[in-house]
Protein: Cell shape-determining protein MreC
Organism: Succinatimonas hippei
Amino acid sequence: MLSDIKLKVMSDFRYYLETALYPVMVFADSPRSITDAVTEQFKSREALISENEQLARELYTQRADLLRLKSLELENAHMRKLLNTPLQETSKRMVGIVLDVNIDPYLKRVVINRGTGSGVYVGMPVITEKGLVGQVISANYASSQVLLLIDSVSSVPVMNLRSQIRAIASGVGVHDLLSIDNVPRNADIKVGDVLVTSGLGGVYPAGYPVAVVTEVGGDKSATFASVKAAPLVDFDQIRYVLMLWVQDDFLNENSQESLPVKSRTDSKNVLKRESIRKALEKLSLINPKNSDMKKEAFNG
């Protein structure tokens, strides 16, 4: 019985001692607990930061992909418009992409990603879904250089779609202007008339849109009128083009002259000078300088 009393006393003593020491134990253990809690907090924060960064990267990538998809949609739409361009029934055509633009303000030329390896040849006509761009003047195996119709050495035989008057549209080195000289004062030509390729010269098939007349004027006492025309193609925004293989049955049956192309050097001539002289003798000329006429005139 005495042993039972001692056991109870010891048990009570331990109880009160542990109760009294508990705050001390808690206090002693608090640094480790606090450290563990802070460490866990940092780990959670780092995990959240890492997760947020990962999500941000994924979102950025997805946005970039979305932009690319939108760009591809626009490109596909543009390609569809190009491929739906009304061409002569049996004409062979090929899509090209502009690789480079000549930064010289006096040379209006572009480089296309198609060359002799794709069948490109010097003199090959180049168009967009809006109208005539120009012609190939040099080519290597993988690329070719295109002389734009607005270049100051370019001349294109054209015809007034309404009155059938023939002329030669010449570039003057300005994006929104073509010059056609020596149109008779009494010639049937009006603002808004559309000029298309006439087929003369054997380079450009007949009927492709070239420009819209924006002004008819000049000195009333002069023999010739001064006519201004704006190209239908926006040369600042060309990316895709169509390159055409010309066949004899597409050309005007009465075409005997070679395409007139003004040239600074013999190496830049596309056709012989004698052919140019003959063409100039038979064709009228016109002379535009600047134009704000909207390109939609052709569609009107």
